[in-house]
Amino acid sequence: MDQQVSRLDLLRFARRVVMQQTTAALAQLDGWIADEERRERERRQGEQMRPPQPEWLIQHGLNRSNLDVVHTGDCWAAAKSGRCRPATREQAFDALRRQVPACVHCRPDTALGILD
Predict the structure, then answer these.
(1) What would the pLDDT profile of 45-94 be if each residue is shown by its tens digit?
(2) What separation in angstroms does the CA of 106 have from each of 32, 102, 111?
(3) Which of 6, 56, 60, 113 is deepest in the core (most CB within 10 A)?
(4) How many other CB atoms sit within 10 Å of the CB of residue 84?
(5) Can you tell me the distance from the alpha carbon of 109 to that of 59, in angstroms, rounded to the nearest whole number?
(6) Of the candidates 72, 52, 67, 65, which has an alpha carbon nearest to the alpha carbon of residue 99?
(7) SS3 track for the chain
(8) How far apart (Å, rounded) are the C-alpha atoms in residues 22 and 14?
């Protein structure tokens, strides 16, 4: 029993295949979109939860007891050292008064109004 497939049947079959592929592709795209939305939401939450950047930093020596350098809170050199702790304006001012050197890059002595 050899049954002839009509051109219309073939076109309907092709349409079903295209719809299945389209549905699968859309589901994949929706997944990618949802992943990206989640990452963006997590990034924003991380920014909101990040503590504020300190206004002043004091860099400690390798033994963590002596004070090496005073920095402003946004100094790139302080970020590279990894040995800085947040400080108040008064602590930074006091350290500079006690002859702790000011960073040559960010010049906290100038920002605090202390003249060399």
Answers:
(1) 999 999 888 999 999 988 777 888 999 999 998 877 778 899 999 999 99
(2) 43, 8, 9
(3) 56
(4) 23
(5) 15
(6) 67
(7) CCCCCCHHHHHHHHHHHHHHHHHHHHHHHHHHHHHHHHHHHHHHHHHHHCCCCCCEEEEECCCCCCEEEEEECCCHHHHHHCCEEEECHHHHHHHHHCCCCECCCCCHHHHCCCCC
(8) 12
Number of Cβ within a 10 Å radius of residue 114: 15
Contact 107, 71 (CB under 8 A): no
Q: Which two tokens stand for residue 107?
A: 């010049």
Nearest to 94 by CA among 109, 107, 106: 109
Contact assessment for residue 84 and residue 58, using Cβ atoms and an 8 Å cutoff: yes
Rounded CA separation 87/41 (Å) = 32
pTM for the full predicted model: 0.59
